[in-house]
Specification:
Layout lengths: L5 E6 L7 H10 L1 E5 L8 H15 L5 E4 L1 E3 L2 E2 L12 H5 L1 H5 L1 H21 L4 E2 L13 H4 L7 H17 L3 E2 L1 E4 L15 E2 L3 H13 L5 E4 L3 E2 L12 H11 L5 E6 L9 H11 L3 E3 L5 H10 L5 H13 L9 H12 L11 H12 L1
Parallel strand pairs: 1-2, 1-13, 2-3, 3-6, 6-7, 8-10, 9-11, 10-12, 12-13
Antiparallel strand pairs: 4-5
Helix pairs in contact: 1-11, 5-7, 5-13, 7-8, 10-11
């Protein structure tokens, strides 16, 4: 009989697995591992790391994930990896080149990222971001939104989702049911939305349009009209009524990072609240071995329904890279996007939060 799968995406501290991490992963069989910039120093090292993760867990279809949206959120960086435009710049392509070119460029964006990921043994991308841009959108999110127009976000997002799937990469759309109206950063504090459900249907639309996507990530936001006491990630009412109900999402639902300051309680309490609310799994991003051990000891395993949704994701991994001339795809992408600045972000939210947490210990 196959071992039960822990309902958690874990993380690691460095560029290779420590003996403690190997023991932990072998013992508890987590859903997968999320990688960050601190885990990646070269393409060859990354290939070796993903191979090692699979060998330790003994599962070829273990989820190995990154955030590779483009712009400020890209873990695979120059000089060994391509530069990718921010989603807000992809959304502006229509203004100069027309909608068909915008569609093709979004598709090319995902095809090229998929090639990079697959080449290194990564099979899950926390992208695209389907939040809508508003004047008050938090700085942590602004450049990651495709547009102010919900229909444009929905259609361009679908183009990327389809391209990832056809290339054997599972996309994970975020942040459900819509994070664009939040004017504070959930890494630091809990956003609270006072808007009516009628107003928020605009924010729901891109996710409804893509409701058959294989995976989605929750938003750490409170929608007062639905549940004034719990963020969506930990609200059974919000997940049942909005994400599974109003939006009709059928795919695998994972929490945003449970270490964000938007959530309260210790790591075990946070995880329990997410899973009890209806998330299929939780995402832990800090790579602290003691905290992960505590989480693993107390976390539940994937339910039967979650395993069915996971099997649909694992079927995607069987898809081979498309038979394209990727040199031409890259050329066309560069011609439309123009010069993309090398990664020089002064605010990596996840790493900043990790450093803050370390200083407070």
């Amino acid at each position: 009989m196959d071992k039960p799968v822990l309902a958690a995406m874990l993380s690691i501290a460095g560029t290779k697995l420590s003996d403690e991490e190997k023991h932990l992963f072998e013992q508890f069989n987590p859903l997968g591992i999320t990688l960050f910039a601190k885990n990646i120093e070269s393409k060859q090292q990354l290939k070796s790391l993903t191979k090692e993760i699979r060998e330790v867990l003994g599962r070829d279809d273990v989820l190995i994930a990154v955030d590779q949206e483009g712009g400020r959120v890209r873990r695979l960086r120059e000089p060994e990896f391509r530069s990718y435009a921010a989603q807000i710049d992809l959304g502006k392509i229509e203004e100069n080149f027309g909608f068909e070119t915008a569609l093709q460029t979004c598709r090319n964006h995902a095809l090229l990222i998929a090639q990079d990921l697959k080449d290194c043994g990564i099979n899950w991308n926390y992208a695209p971001c389907l939040d809508i841009y508003y004047a008050q959108t938090s700085d942590v999110l602004k450049s990651r939104c495709l547009s102010q127009d919900e229909h444009k976000v929905a259609i361009l997002g679908k183009e990327m989702i389809d391209a990832y799937i056809s290339s054997g990469i599972c996309p994970c759309m975020k942040h459900m049911p819509g994070h664009g109206r939040a004017n504070v950063d959930p890494h630091l504090q809990l956003p609270i939305l006072e808007n009516s459900i009628s107003e928020l249907k605009k924010d729901f639309y891109p996710f409804w349009f893509n409701r058959y996507a294989p995976a989605g990530m929750t938003a750490h936001i409170i929608i007062k009209e639905i549940d004034a006491s719990h963020p969506v990630t930990q609200s059974k009412i919000a997940i049942d009524k909005i994400i599974r109900g109003e939006i009709g999402f059928k795919g695998f639902l994972i929490s945003d990072s449970i270490k964000m300051n938007a959530l309260r309680g210790n790591i075990v309490d946070r995880a329990h609240a997410c899973l009890e609310a209806g998330c299929d799994a939780v995402c832990y991003c800090h790579g602290d071995i003691d905290e992960m051990f505590s989480l693993c000891q107390n976390c539940s395993f994937l339910t039967d329904n979650s395993l069915i949704r996971l099997a649909m994701i694992q079927n995607i991994f069987k898809n081979k890279l498309n038979d394209f001339d990727y040199g031409k795809v890259e050329y066309d992408y560069a011609q439309i996007c123009g010069k993309i600045d090398k990664y020089d972000d002064k605010y990596d939210a996840t790493e900043t939060l990790r450093l803050m947490s370390n200083m407070n210990q």
